[in-house]
Specification:
This protein has 221 residues and is of the alpha/beta class. 40% of the residues lie in helices and 14% in strands. It has a six-stranded parallel β-sheet, with helices on both faces. α9 links the parallel β7 and β8. α1 packs across α4.
């Protein structure tokens, strides 16, 4: 009897979305501030909002206006769904990077604090759906730095091995470590290099180019 063909377990790379693959902060911040104007409240500055991005929306609003957080979330979600790609675009080289990794045999998944339905709409609007295997948002379970969203993404793919968590905040890096993945921090997003260094990522880089050096083509089945 001929030997069974060699196979390799599915190997998956997990990416954060906002600030990692997509430069979306201007649309997020403007939508966040819009709610304050609608309710007649003083709006925080860009610099005040930026450090909180990556936390759940309710927590972000509670930081500034706890008595109005629920109403502010409602306004944000209505406004953001109509304005989420006004200025948001993939970072330079991201589309090519994802395609190269897929060609090399890796599975690619998103693990984001966005709700899953919004994350999938966002990915589709930016033309990234075909470059990814799965998009997992955070829906009613602990958010990063807890590893739950990563575990759910890996489970949905039935993957045997998650390799890297790639993100732009310390929350991403801590979640990746908690999930047992190597971690790659990119500085073009929300947290600067000094802040990211406090989480001790395996890689701390200004862009995603070095990721390819760690991920050579996988052997074919």
């Amino acid at each position: 009897m001929a030997p069974a063909p060699m196979t390799h377990p599915h190997k998956t790379i997990i990416f954060d979305l906002d600030g990692t693959l997509v430069d979306s902060l201007p649309d997020i911040i403007s939508s966040f501030q819009y709610g304050f104007a609608c309710l007649g409240l003083p709006a925080p500055t860009d610099a005040e909002v930026r450090p909180l991005i990556g936390h759940p929306l309710e927590d972000m609003y509670a930081h500034f206006a706890p008595a109005h957080a629920v109403s502010l979330c409602t306004v944000y979600r209505e406004h953001y769904t109509r304005n989420f790609v006004n200025r948001s675009r993939p970072y330079p080289g991201v589309v090519e990077l994802l395609r190269t990794l897929r060609e090399r045999g890796y599975r690619l998944a998103i693990a984001t604090t966005k709700r899953t339905d919004m994350a999938r709409r966002f990915v589709e609007a930016l033309g990234l759906t075909s470059a990814l295997d799965y998009v997992q948002g955070t829906d009613g379970f602990p958010h990063k730095p807890a590893p739950d969203v990563i575990h759910r993404a890996l489970a949905a793919l039935g993957t045997a091995e998650g390799l890297w968590m790639v993100g732009d905040t310390t929350h991403d890096i801590h979640a990746g470590k908690a999930a047992g993945l190597r971690t790659y921090a990119v500085t073009w997003g929300n947290h600067d290099a000094g802040t990211l260094a406090t989480a001790a990522p395996d890689e701390l880089q200004p862009d995603l180019g070095r990721l390819l050096e760690h991920l050579p083509p996988l052997p074919r089945a």
